[in-house]
Amino acid sequence: MLHLHPSLLPKETLFTDALHHLKDNESDLPSDSEYSSSASDSGFYSSSPPTLQPSDHGDMSTMSEASAEPSPSNMKVLDIRSKTVDSMADSTHLARVVAQTLSTRDTVFPASSARFDAEQNGKRPTKEDGAMTPIQDVLVRSIPTLVLYDDNGLDIFNDITHVDEYYITNAEMQIFKDKSSEIAHTHVGNNGVLIELGVGSMRKTRYLLDAIVSQNKSVTYYALDLSAQSLTQSLQPLALQFPSIKFVGLLGTYDDSLLYIKEHLTRDENSTRTLLWLGTSIGNTTREEAAEFLARVKDCAMQEGDVLLCGIDRRNNASVVKAAYDDPKGVTRAFILNGLRHVEHIFGGERDELFPLSKFEYVSLYNAELGRHEAYYRSLEQQRVEVDVDNTSHVFEFEEGELIFIEYSIKYDGKDIKQLMDQSGLRWAKEWADQTERYSLHCFAK
Ligand SMILES: C[S@@+](CC[C@H](N)C(=O)[O-])C[C@H]1O[C@@H](n2cnc3c(N)ncnc32)[C@H](O)[C@@H]1O
């Protein structure tokens, strides 16, 4: 049975005009009528995720049949994918974007990275016309990092968070275990709102929710991610465990969420917002993009007194970082290669039809000079891939050895954080470090 990622279905298949039907406010969930079991008229994804056959596209009855388990009444999931600006969480648009990014070489592969690739992997990329000189920057193709997070990718990412070498999760988990009480006391207002971006499995958030409830505070928790299935699965146990908290899953991208917050979240006077961006997700954008995004978060989603709690990895020892992103069991490798499977899927290809995994490898390298881990695919042979998007054919000719960029994991030392604050206009307020001092949860204020 094929498990279809909700973003692979036409939007109308899952939800219709959720935003027009729902008038959210921070303290109230939509009325009972909006909790109808039919996703088609409520924009509300009220139960366990559907498992659909490809032939079920557009067939709402299958969706309803799959919605067998009732959802806790303090929880809902909304489709907030923008209808005015094409959302990257929409598979049709994503296919267009990937076709375009694979058609152009516009991502810099620095000379220093070529040196690190040679040192760490014993290889270096080629140019179409021959071997590359490692003292030169070259341009490579890229695929948007977001393709890594389909349902399967989210499952594998969850496995990564249990890998010993991936110190990041344990470090952040420990900070939340130790400091949630202080965070809830100082940074979460009663009747306030928590908004978490890119929630994943929410393993750490549980500690904060527990502390909030222990302090008899009432909050609404908005959880954003790219998969309705994953949101539903992760939110359900939390909603059952914390009945006094209102849970709202938001299906969409970071950009969609800023639009949604700006347009749909009204604000009670005196209520505060606490934003969370954990798992060093900020590292998946360039330093410039991170500063620009934080500036938009500040302008669209925060008022004076609100805070953003942002988990950020430090510039740690190179071998520690390298092991975290290239673990001996190959979990990260599987995660990255799944991204190619997802790309194949959004182009409508069968398994291994367009991007056979035997013809690509995962390239992990830590560029200590730039303070960033870089993940690429390397084409193992010369190959030609042809895809059709919007009835237009796109042909990609990959050279043997050619690199395709997929993900940065950028690290921040004190100087980098200061620059991030200067560029974003946010104010650094506080930092909690884990016991090994490899990782920090920063508190940024407006
Ligand atoms: C590095 S994982 C972190 C997950 C979780 N916060 C943690 O700490 O373990 C990044 C998360 O952000 C989500 N994500 C990635 N890009 C996104 C985007 N553009 N918009 C919304 N969510 C995104 C992914 O689906 C994933 O759950």
From TrEMBL:
Keywords: Methyltransferase, Transferase. It comes from the Eukaryota. GO terms for biological process: methylation. Residues 24-75 are annotated as: Disordered. Residues 61-74 have a biased composition (Polar residues). Residues 28-50 have a biased composition (Low complexity). One of its GO terms (molecular function) is methyltransferase activity. Pfam families: Methyltransf_33 (PF10017). InterPro entries: EgtD_Methyltrsf_superfamily, MeTrfase_dom, SAM-dependent_MTases_sf, SAM_MeTrfase_EasF-type_put. Residues 141-445 form the Histidine-specific methyltransferase SAM-dependent domain. PANTHER family: ERGOTHIONEINE BIOSYNTHESIS PROTEIN 1. NCBIfam families: methyl_EasF. This is Histidine-specific methyltransferase SAM-dependent domain-containing protein. It comes from Chytriomyces confervae.
